[in-house]
Sequence to fold (884 residues):
Amino acid sequence: MVVGNIILRLRGSLEFKCQLDSTDVPHVQKVISRTFEALGSQVKAESLVLSLSSSPVFLWPNKGGHATAGEISPNRPCKDLQQLIQTDDQESSRKKSAKKDKNNPTAGIINLTLMTEVTEPGVLSAPTLLRGSKKHHLLQTTLPMDCVVSVLSSESISVVCGTLVGALCSQLGDMEKVALRHMKGTALLIPQPFHFLLPAPVGLVTVVYPAGVPDSQLETQRKELHSLFELPDDRPYLRRANALHFPDEPYKDGYLRNPHVHLNHPALENGKPYLVQGVYSYHHYMQDRVDDNGWGCAYRSLQTICSWFQQQGYVERAVPSHKEIQQALVEVGDKQGSFLGSRQWIGSIEVAAVLDQLLGVTSKIMFVSQGSELASKGRELANHFLSEGTPIMIGGGVLAHTILGVAWSETTGQIRYLILDPHYTGAEDLQVITDKGWCGWKGPEFWDQNAYYNLCLPQRPKTI
Amino acid sequence: MKTSGLLVGSHNITQSKHCEQSLVSQSHSVIMYNNVCFLKVSRMLPGGMSVIGVFLVTPPELSKEAQNTLRRLIFAVDKHISKGRLWSLTEEDVTEKVTLHICSKTRKVVCRTYDVRDPKSSAKPADWKYQSGVCTSWPLLTCSVGLNLVFPVLEMHVLPQDMEKCMKEGLQTWAKQIEDGLCLINGDAMPGEVELLGGQKKNAKAVQQTFRAQILIPMAEPQSERRLTASVKVCSGSLTLKGMVQCRAYLHSNKPRAKHATEVIKRDVINTVSSRVEMFLEDLLMEGEDKGSVGVQQVLPRRVFAPVPGMSLCVCDYMFPDECVSDVSDRLKEMLDWETPEDSIDTSQEAVPEAPTIDLKNTVVQKNLKAKSTLDARPKTPSEDPTEAHKSHKTYYAGVAMAAAIALLATGTSLIYLSD
Fold:
């Protein structure tokens, strides 16, 4: 993200209402377009008001950025708006760790809501009532507007207001295209915006997708966008699951995401860390009311890997339960029926089999005959994280773990492993998990030097 | 000698010690028990003012029956006024209404209050206080609200019969938006507890303060259900309500807070729109359906303001397109019994739309006709009243919920003693 920039997010609902006198396609398209045009005028009207969330400030973007609070004049830089936002500091420091989320570029975002002033005096006269008697179909919905702009923090409020209104207009244009493209008869699919943080130099983009159409049917659109943004065509960037997760929107499922970002990485001489890419959830013992203490570690590691594939947009299915994992193994013939409901351990081979059966994901298996050999696997592991970037499941001795990264020095041979430990039985407390090393960097002595280990390295499917 | 009327004023939330000099004037006797009058008077009141009670003057032998009459009246008045109301009462609203009985012989005043929310409520005694010195300037809130509402007429509805139903449903949704909306006062979003007149001396004869209100609402309500497609309804027509309404509300001057101010102005916004729609529909019902009116923009009655004699308050009235100022003046005389010179009636607040249904020729004709007739020079105050007005500087003590009151006149109350 560009330093010195501020992100503003404007959300709200716009009422979409139109009368269709007939249902033949050209008429319907014309009316829909006219309705979007009218919404565009509404958005440029002087009665449009932006409410700055968690503050008493209101802005009139189409009146030069005039604001309610006296100290905010349209010439002031937009970063002054941040000072007026009343943040709930108590709340946030209790949940998260003390370390600031430096990696998340959307921290410190300014949220605004769309409103309208009904008392904005127009050139209207006393009310009139018009009775229309034409039979028609009335199409009605609300459009979920969601615009994100990135501006210089020194930019004046009046200019930023103009940018926001422009973003609204262009989003309306995108919504119109999507609505018309996917319309069938009088069924208008609601266009929904999604934000994506694409690799530099592209940055933040917003794409509108029609509600109810699964990602699998939107491949053509994604192909167009991939070529527009010059994105590689072998990994997903623009599936709905890849949408940017804003820090002020907590995940509702209760799992921790990427606890490793809160750690300090080891400083090795001539060495650097090679980490998992993207987002995963931390799965461990005792979650989901399943008491798998002592036998479920490999299952939990597998769940962490499944969560990665779901959140990177490769699959839409939810993370499988212990039951579903066992069922899959019986289905592929790897296990007998008696396996179901048991507390039997599984290993890397089984993990690979389930990944294939349930997610269609293939894996590479790495074998080391002695734990001490792992110290020499720096290059291979580093390459895996560079090219695939998926979490690795490692099983051996009597334990299973997840490897999230490796820090390795080519010259000195020093190596560290970033381990996510599924044996944790406590609550989703980030502080405890990072302090006590349930997610932490370990040295080569972490492994049982004499046991043999199997590693399952899941491979990214080549798809967008 | 019989006199009756409505008490109009402003409810105050806390106990008040300020009272208004009471003016009582004579009615001309209309015998019919006319519910419409309560509503008509109520429509003439801008925000912050409402009908807070009824009074009755009877000879001593009828005092007991008067109490029963008053009780029936007060519930009837409240019922008719609150019918068709589009906003809801809050917990803080005072639902105690006042009944006043004045004995024509002894001038004794018996004041009782009833909680109109409870049909079984019994009378609570209260004291009625007169105070010299007229309450001067009530702070005023104004705003003008733009409307652009389209109400669908679903297939199962038939116009014109279902017009009222369709409009009511649509207006209910709009009224909720206004009720839930944010109100800025003089450009400021104040917390509800802030006093608007902070820093003013209590008894200072201040100039009337005017506050500008602005109402902000979300552009649309987000969908409650998780829909994937737009809803489709088959309609047989639509009703479009467009234009601007001028709104006004008065605040009782005893330490009004921002939340009271936002409440009264919002209620006036809702009332003025629903009143004129109701009046339009009533008129339509009476005049009969005009086939030519479909597809033509019909002008709704527009709001005009008239000053209350002796006070810096205004009441309002609604003028149909084929009416003129003298009609308003006549109505004010009829309902409220005071003379309003035609040039003091402010018709400029809401502009006349360029609607084809205004028949100018007719209006001119009407005006000419009015100019020729002499003004109804009824004796304003028969013997009783001038003395009454002076005598009213007595020290009766006020009780609950009486901030300021003006006794105005309404025609027609059901009286058991019609023979006089």
Q: What stands out?
A: The radius of gyration of chain A is 27 Å. Chain A has ten helices and 16 strands. The longest strand of chain A covers residues 136-152. The mean pLDDT of chain A is 90.
